[in-house]
Amino acid sequence: MPSSCPFAVSRCVECGLSAWPPPAMCRRCGSLGFAPEPAPGGTLEQATESAGPDGPVTLGTVRTDAGPMVVARVADARPGAAVTLRVVDGAVEAT
Question: pTM for the full model?
Answer without folding.
Answer: 0.86
